[in-house]
Design brief:
Length: about 170
């Protein structure tokens, strides 16, 4: 057990494609990389969100993606997606938002992004409501239709599994 902790192999991890929508998320992100589309990793200001943002940004950078990161200001914007920032991002030529540690409850904001031509891939670990937002993909272990055996990921764990799937 200690050896696998200190020197893990990829075989020690669960299959990331057991997450509902993981395949879609990977396809959309890889197509954006091929097309040289601008991608924003939309994080959160807490420790989980900051680590999630870093992990996914590092992997996307390694894959040659045209990326930037966005963490909303806690005092002026609050938590998660917001329409003003989405509009500003669109004006900068961003065509894909990938959320980390947020997004599963951002119904109105994702609908707004869709209406202005910005695709959204959600990665989150918070409990969804009975419905999920109208994003291109929603990767969350708490979705009722998610086949991942482990359900207790933090946001950084879900971001890591997306990075693992992308690799």
């Amino acid at each position: 057990l200690a050896k696998s902790f200190l020197k893990p192999s990829w075989d020690d991890f669960n299959d990331p494609f057991l997450f509902r929508d993981m395949k879609k998320a990977v396809e959309v992100i890889k197509q954006a990389i091929v097309n040289k589309d601008k991608i924003i990793v939309w994080g959160d200001f807490d420790c989980d969100g900051s680590c999630s943002t870093s992990i996914l940004a590092l992997e996307l950078n390694r894959l040659g993606a045209n990326i930037n990161c966005y963490i909303p200001d806690r005092h002026t914007e609050g938590y998660g997606l917001n329409n003003d920032a989405i509009k500003e991002i669109k004006e900068q030529g961003i065509s894909l938002i990938v959320t980390v540690d947020n997004g599963v409850s951002a119904f109105d904001e994702i609908d707004f992004a869709n209406s202005i031509g910005v695709d959204v891939v959600v990665t989150d670990h918070h409990l969804p409501s009975d419905t999920i937002p109208n994003a291109v993909a929603v990767v969350d272990p708490h979705r009722e239709d998610c086949e991942s055996e482990f359900k207790h990921y933090a946001g950084v764990g879900v971001a890591f599994m997306l990075a693992f799937a992308l690799s």
